[in-house]
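S1.2 Input.
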Amino acid sequence: MPLVDYECTECPHVIEDVVYLQREEQAAHLECPVCDGVAVKKFPLIARTSHSWGDTNSYYDRGLGAVVENRQHRDRLCKQKGLVPLDDMPSHHWEDATAAKVKRVEKRQELTDRYTAALKKHNGDKIKAIPEALPARECLSGAINDIWED
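S1.3 Output.
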C-alpha cells in the first residue's frame, strides 16, 4: 500500500495518507488537522541510481581479486570463480566450520603431547615412542587421518 504526501498550503505540516488498492481515486486535497487549511497532494520523488539501492561505491575485494561495483557484480564474480557468497551460506556455517577446525587443532595438540610424553618416557627412542603414542588400531581406523584434513 503506497503512501501519498499532502502538504498544507497555509502551514508547513505534511500529512501521509495510505492508499488502499480498493480505492480507485486519491483525494486531490485534504483538510489540514493542524490549521484547518487545504493540504494538496505532492508528487512523489523516486530516487534513481545507476546501481542497486545503496550500492554507489566500488571497492576492491581481496578475496575475489577484483574491483566490485555492487552486490550483483560481486555475485556474478563469485559465480564465475565457482565461489558461493557468504550471505548465501546457512546462518551458522562460519561458526560451525570454525568450531570443527578448533576441535581438529585440539586433537592434533593432544596427539603431539602424547608423542612428546612417550618420547620422554623412552629417552628419545622413536621406535618405542611411536607405537605407544600412535596405536595401530587408531591409525588403521582412519581416526587420526581426519584430524589432519583442513
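S1.4 Remarks. Residues 59-88 form one domain.
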